[in-house]
Structures are given as C-alpha cells and as structure tokens.
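Project outcomes to date are best conveyed with an example. Our students and postdoctoral researchers have been running inverse folding experiments weekly, and each run begins with a structure described purely in tokens. The record below, which covers 452 residues, was selected by the lab manager from last quarter's runs and is presented without edits.
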C-alpha cells in the first residue's frame, strides 16, 4: 500500500498528523479492554473467494481459527493465512477490512474507538481504507515472529526415541502453567480433508479416526485389554493438567493374531527432561523383561482436548509401528491409547479412552499422512488390583506432589463433584470386582487430597 494510508484514504485520512500512529495502536486487545468487542466462540469470520473461515476471539485479543485450533496474534495474520490457503499468490490479508466481528467489519469498530477518543477520521476513509498505515510491515514482522516461534517449538518437540522402544513423546501441552489457554478446544478435522503433507499445518491438529468397516477392511489383529491397564492409565492422566505418557506391556500371539495388553507402565518424567526419560525407559524395559512381557504399545493423554490423535501423534505412532514390527519376525502390531480426562465434551465424569492404529497411506500417495484407524478391543475385567499397581499409584502421587500443574483434587470439578469425586467415578467402571484393597485405595485418595 505504498507509504501513505493506502488508496482511498485521501489526504489526512488517518486523522491528521500523528493520527496514523494511534490508528495502528488500536489492536483487538484495546477494543476488548474498552468493551467495544467481547471475547467469544465463532464471533469472527472471513469470507474470501467463496470460502468461509470462522474464528474464536480470546480474552487476550488472540484469534483461534476453529478449523485447526491455530492461534493468530492479529486479524492481519489470520486473514493472510486463510487467504493464502485459497489463493497462494495472495501476499497480505488486510485484516481489519476483511475480518468481520458478528457480521460487521472490524474497521467499523476501530473507527468507533477512534471517534470515541476524538481522533476523527472522515467516515469514508475509515470504511474503505484497504489497509491501516503500517499494516504491511506489521504483517511481515508477524510472519517472521511466527516462523521463529514455530522453529523453536519444532525443535523442543521433536521426538527422538532411543533404539530400544518408543521414546518419550514430547507434547504440546507441556507448556509452563499460565502460558497455555487451558480451555482452547481443538476442533478435529476429517482425514479426507487433509490431503498431502503440508508443513504449514499445525502438528497439533486433531484428526477424526476411521473405522475399518468404513473402508471395507478387516482389523488386521485382535486386541484384548485388562481393566487394570485402563485403571492405571486413567489414574495417571487425571493427576496433572499437562500431557502424560506411558507404555503398554503384553503379549502377541502370532497364531491367533491376538494382542493382549496386560500392564501399563507410566513414565514418571517431565516432558522435555531427556535424561530422566531415558532412565525411566530403562526401568520400564527391565520391568517388562522381568515379567516376561513384550512392549506392545504406548499411551498418552490430551487433558483438555478430545481423545483423538494429532498429526504429530499419527507420525509417532507410524514410527513406533515400524520399529516394533522390525524387532519381531513377521508382523507385530503396536497399539496407541489416548486418554482424555478433562475434555468438556465428554458425556460425564468418566474419561474417554480411545485406541487407535495407523494405516500407511496408499502407495500411490506416499506424501499423505497415515490414516488413523479406530480399533475394536475386547475388555477383560481383572479380578483384583495387584500390589504392583498400587505401588505405581503411590510412586505417581509422590512424583507429581507439589508440581505447579498438579490437579487440585479438593476443588470443585462441576456443581456436584470435586476433582477427586470425578476421578473416583471415572475409575469405578475399571475397578476390579473384588475390593480387597479398597482401604489402600482410600489411602492413595487421601494422599492426593493432602498433596494438592
């Protein structure tokens, strides 16, 4: 838009000398602070070349694009991103003119703010200014910032598993508390909407799973899972507002094509603490060997999002499948379980635990993402909780004690339940019939209450 205020603004169209600066300083955050806008889901929209994009306005003035959960710092950044998807040649998005808030252009709200603060702009200029002064530079700066941030997070989060078994997956939720918008709902996309790999896609985009029946295939293996496995991984997932991870031990019977999952091994390590993770993995590996079990999969949690795999989870799972397959003669499946304890869309207090497996993309489309498949499991009710599991629970309580992201169990989770009630209800369906160790469980619960 050249050096001026853009075509159509005319002489003095930015409110006289110095007006341009004030005008540029009007951000969404300023409009929110002055109550001209209110935060909300789906209040922002862009229409461009026949496509519609919806966005949520956060209280801090950032925009969450509903389709992928990506976060943008300004209308320009979001508009540019969306328009480029439709028209790759598009250089800038002209955010204030093209993003609408509840159906009205944002420019109108900016003009209203300026009028309220006596910085008059001829209304014609306000309405048709294609870009505020400096918006182009602002865009470039933002893009650079975003790239830098993306670079940092890609480095932090790259998963470098040891040769032995799956490495500890690093996770998006492992952000210092307070830095994360806990209730940011990531809207899942359908696999068929993904197309081939695109580095611009947010790796935390969630993908809906596909059933084998839907593609006229049979599940290539059977799964039986012990209630104790689900009990322990559900317990682990409830303890912290960050993502947790662990491994699954069991047996693979090549003749009956049956994968039996018998034991969960929680990783007691902070995501991103590589040394601790390595030590933990050694310990788990020894545990597996001692019990005569094989590594048959892994689990992790999405504390506040749906129990669906992200693009990053799909890649990790493909990686694990190949690695486990290579270690045994012939095919050995690797199962992934996702647990979602605090997602607001769950029907009740019970966590959603979903198994998935990844089917490689068709050979003629090698650059596509793997296809996340829904896995059917037979559920085997254990007769009792073993000392092993109680011991693990104690170690976990000890490990998370005093952590900043520890869930506060005595606080209310809903109108009628505390977080501790919610945990107990979720575990109830996975608890063995014989409650011989009920008193020990109560001990664990009282520790949780004190610790948090």
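After processing, the design step wrote out the following sequence:
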């Amino acid at each position: 838009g050249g050096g001026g205020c853009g075509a159509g603004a005319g002489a003095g169209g930015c409110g006289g000398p110095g007006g341009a600066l004030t005008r540029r300083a009007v951000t969404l955050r300023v409009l929110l602070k002055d109550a001209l806008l209110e935060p909300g889901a789906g209040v922002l929209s862009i229409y461009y070349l026949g496509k519609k994009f919806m966005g949520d306005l956060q209280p801090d003035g950032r925009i969450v694009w509903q389709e992928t959960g990506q976060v943008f710092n300004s209308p320009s950044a979001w508009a540019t991103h969306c328009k480029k998807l439709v028209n790759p040649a598009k250089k800038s998005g002209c955010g204030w003119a093209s993003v609408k808030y509840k159906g009205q252009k944002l420019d109108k709200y900016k003009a209203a703010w300026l009028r309220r603060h006596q910085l008059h702009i001829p209304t014609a200029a306000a309405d048709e200014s294609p870009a505020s002064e400096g918006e182009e530079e602002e865009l470039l700066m933002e893009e650079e910032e975003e790239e830098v941030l993306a670079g940092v997070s890609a480095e932090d989060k790259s998963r470098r598993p040891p040769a032995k078994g799956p490495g500890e997956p690093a996770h998006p939720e492992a952000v210092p508390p307070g830095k994360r918008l806990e209730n940011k709902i990531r809207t899942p996309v359908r696999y068929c909407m993904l197309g081939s790999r695109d580095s611009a896609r947010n790796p935390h985009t969630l993908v809906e799973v596909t059933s084998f029946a839907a593609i006229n295939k049979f599940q290539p293996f059977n799964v039986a899972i012990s209630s104790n496995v689900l009990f322990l991984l559900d317990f682990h997932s409830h303890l912290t507002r960050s993502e947790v991870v662990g491994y699954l031990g069991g047996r693979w019977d090549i003749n009956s094509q049956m994968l039996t999952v018998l034991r969960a091994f929680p990783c007691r390590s902070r995501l991103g603490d590589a040394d601790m993770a390595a030590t933990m993995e050694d310990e788990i590996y020894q545990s597996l060997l001692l019990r005569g079990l094989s590594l048959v999969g892994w689990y992790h949690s999405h504390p506040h999002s749906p129990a669906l795999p992200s693009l990053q989870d799909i890649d990790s799972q493909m990686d694990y499948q190949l690695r486990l397959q290579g270690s045994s003669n012939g095919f050995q499946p690797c199962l992934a379980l996702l647990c979602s304890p605090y997602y607001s869309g769950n029907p009740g207090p019970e966590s959603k635990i979903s198994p998935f497996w990844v089917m490689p993309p068709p050979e003629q489309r090698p650059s596509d993402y793997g296809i996340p498949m829904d896995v059917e499991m037979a559920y085997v009710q254990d007769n009792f909780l073993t000392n092993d599991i109680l011991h693990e629970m104690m170690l976990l309580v000890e490990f998370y004690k005093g952590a900043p992201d520890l869930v506060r169990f005595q606080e209310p989770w809903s109108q009628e339940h505390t977080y501790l009630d919610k945990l107990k209800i979720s575990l109830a369906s996975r608890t063995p019939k014989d409650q011989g160790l009920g008193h020990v469980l109560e001990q664990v619960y009282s520790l949780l209450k004190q610790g948090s």
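The chain has two domains: 28-116, 189-451. The first helix runs from residue 19 to 25. The training component of this project remains on track.
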